[in-house]
Amino acid sequence: MSNILHFNLSCIESILDVPATLSKPNKKWHSAFATIYCSRALHSLLNKKTSSKLPLSTPSFVVVSVEPHVAFSNIDHTSLTAVVKEKNLDQLRELGGVEGVADALKTDTKNGIHGAVEDVAERKETFGSNTYPRPPTKSFFYFVLEAFKDLTILILLACATLSLGFGIKEHGLKEGWYDGGSIFVAVFLVISVSAVSNFRQNRQFEKLSKVSNNIEVEVVRDGHRQKISIFEIVVGDVVCLKIGDQVPADGLFLDGHSLQVDESSMTGESDHVQVNSTQNPFLFSGTKVADGYAQMLVTSVGMNTIWGEMMSTISRNINEQTPLQARLNKLTSSIGKVGLAIAFLVLVVLVVRYFTGNTEDENGNQEFYGSKTKADDIVNAMVRIIAAAVTIVVVAIPEGLPLAVTLTLAYSMKKMMADQAMVRKLPACETMGSATTICTDKTGTLTLNQMKVTKYWLGKEPVEDSSSIASNVLKLIQQGVALNTTGSIYRATSGSEFEFSGSPTEKAILSWAVLELDMDMERLKQNHTILHVEAFNSEKKRSGILMRKKADNKMHVHWKGAAEMILAMCSSYYDASGSMKDLDDAERMTFEQIIQGMAASSLRCIAFAHKQIPEEEQEISEGCQRLTEDSLTLIGLVGIKDPCRPGVRKAVEDCQYAGVNVK
User: Fold this and answer.
1) Where are the domains of the chain?
2) Which residues are catalytic, by number?
């Protein structure tokens, strides 16, 4: 008996040993099977052991309780979604604040989620994906029916039916079907071409919609800042936001400075909303970042967001007409109405003339003799009169004119898409034909948007070798670059290459500071505390920070931005030896010439400036919401080169040759 028991126990141990390679659903089934097997095995052993003593009844079934594996059991997603939607701060505090929510979602606030395929898949399965249901695709027959609804087509079909019937009655089947049959063929061609054109146009719009909606978003996963599709964002992701970015999902403010969000798409209010960690940490999908930068923790995606709820109730109609199509349709309708009126007038006149005896047949005899006229002759005469009126209607309606415009525009769109020019709206093809001036952006449009620092001026002299920079100036440059930036640096291992993220300008400056000036960004961030940030925007053309050095507790202001803007804020500068000198009018003129020279060489000129806050002003500066903007010291100027995109010169020359001005 003991041998049998030992054998059964060894079998049970082998069954309970779940292979690591099994997927989660298979592991659950394995657990269920092991439970059933163990129950039956133990039950049979007890039966054998006690069969001689007690009669046991064996049940015909075994109850198995398999507990489901819940990965995010610490948080109720429905409640969390409601907290963000309702901006409920009290309930958020009950959940442990943003940090508590991050812990429940298994997110590291600095390094983000793990980002493994299994982790992302599990989050999508639990919380849903960041996609919205699309309306069903319209079939070809839908566009055929739409073409049939055209008033012109209906009139032509009625005319074709009458013409066919009257023609067969008057001339017989062999020759009488010509007129009516020809109209039917014409209507068939118009409907076919119109339906095919609209169907293909609809398909192109759907493809374009997928491309235009697929925005790239910066997230932090496993400590690595990377760009992913907006559709790949999952609950728990840490998303990096900067000016101009669309908020990709509902979430909570983690970290950032001076963040202002435009919620007009949601609320209709034009005033920007201040978002921070204390009073309003809530961010909503579909809104845009108007100022500042931040990192957010995603709490809801897809249809669980406020934007998703709105999108589900909005239907988009892409079958809009171009201005020319609308005018031609109006013209066609007017001509058709005039044609119908004239045809009706002709019909009345011809009927009156016939019944008053003013018409003659081919032999010159009067056609109508009152009661003496045969009924068959009257019917034939009426058929001829109605056929003449129908002919006027058919000739008067220019049914092919709007179709010709549609075909021309569709062909233009197809040609432009072949040239990688995405046409969002069909009227654009028509409008572009009338363009006399093109206003284009330079960075990223005419250039490759692959920037690199090629010049550095310290004082009034260019610096060729970074080793010649004075140590005090070098420290200030490194502080200004590392702390006053929205970019980041990632390095997997000490031997691997650096990965820079941020705007092209930020990446160029960070790359230059790390590779040429040996800047250690992490060490500098650890040794300094950032107190206040003024983020860069297109109006100010500069960004600044107020920071405290942990070693000596001294406060410093660093500014970075367009060279002419920063120069105007400076009253002194560092020369090549690292000495500080006053910036008088003559010196200022020299710097302006240096800046103009760099601009003439197609370089983007960025200036760095600095000021140490005196001890008596430190308390005032710390409590003030604005940074010091005067009496700064110019640290240096950098020139960033952005190579021109191939083919731009020829494209501009072609536009000028065609009489189109390029601004």
Assistant:
1) 77-131+231-315, 319-434, 452-615+627-641
2) 441
